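As a warm-up, study this chain.
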Amino acid sequence: MIKLIVLDVDGCLTDGKIIYSAQGDEIKAFHVKDGLAIASWIKLGHDVAIITGRNSDIVARRAKELGIAHLFQGVKNKDVVLEALRIKLHLQWEHIAAIGDDLNDYKMLRRVGLSFTPKDGSIYIQECVHHTLNRSGGAGAVREMIEYILKENNEEGDFVALWQ
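Now compare it with the structure written out below.
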């Protein structure tokens, strides 16, 4: 059973574009359906972690909005950070799922029990993950991943019941 999902940001929670305003502010767009699935996953008593290579106040804000307790930004070695979190949460690798889209996610994706990449993930990542999703990053790929895991965990009924 998957108990922790690990999310990359750029290219998974977003479409990978980084937009700067004339004032130098960074802009990112998140998909609301991903957010609802993440918040529901947490309501079911599971954990979520964001592990990202960049630093962004926007990502910190989104994590707070969704109730994500484990946020790691500016990470160069995602697998090392995930190993420390795995130990802290007393989890085995088979209880962890992750989504990533590019080479900086490779080591992390190879370690987890269930790995995903969006439809537009790097070909090198598509070759190493368990599942390439039908949706692109920022277009509901994380929602698709969570629904797949809910089915595998036999928790679809609990997920829907949260909203009935």
